[in-house]
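User: Teach me something about this protein's shape.
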Amino acid sequence: MSALHPPIRPEYERDLPPFDEAPVERAIPLAARLWDQDWLRRLVIIAAIALIWEVAGRLQANPLLLPTFTGTARVFVEGIRDGVLLERAAISIGVLLKGYLAGIVLAFLLTTLAISTRFGRDLLSTLTAMFNPLPAIALLPLALLWFGLGQASLVFVLVHSVLWPLALNIFSGFQAVPETLRMAGRNYGLTGWRFVAQILVPAALPSIVSGLRIGWAFAWRTLIAAELVFGASSGRGGLGWYIFQSRNELYTDQVFAGLAMVILIGLLVENVVFATLERATVHRWGQQR
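Assistant: First, the predicted structure itself:
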């Protein structure tokens, strides 16, 4: 046979074993599948804490020092039914959003200036080194002196608690953007805020979301601490003021109910708001596992 006409390989058939004879993997037990769920494991942890709390409260046998979990849960449900806890929580969240959003805007402006100019970088590094270690609650006396007895004082300390950690996270995320993406943005003629919005922000989104989460935690605990010192504006105070009043009136079960509301709001924001944001952005786009 010539090279132009190679020999044809004869056809043949091969008998394969039946598919049902192949080994079948054993199904995962129901208990293992349930335990693989994050919500169930967290629920078990919360239930264990509640059980320890109930036992400790019964052994203490002094509701003034440590009410039981069931007693606190009863007061908590009554506070929800009466609308007192919901009203106080709404006041706190309203003040928090004002300071939180203002801190986000200032952080983005500061980091945009820092990533664009050398003076901005020096300004950011100097201000963060000065003010980031300073507790926000320490500025409350000055805020009361400058802004008076109102929500403006609380918003001021909230902006301080959010601004510096968020700015540091955003700036570190901007600095970690690969040079290839930066060059691609410059080749398309992007400069200024368009370069930041279309190149740096999408690439640094994991750091930005992490900074938003840290800023939220700082702002929430700063607000509650500030309200414990001063939180009533025109006779209307938030959760911190509710806890402070309950302590003065020796209603320890209401103190724990207020703390439970603070914890519950924190859990909802962490596991609903920020978890949804991460799933819709950094996880969906493959930027973070």
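Now, about its shape. The first helix runs from residue 30 to 35. The mean pLDDT is 84. If you'd like, I can walk through any region in more detail.
User: That's plenty for now, thanks!
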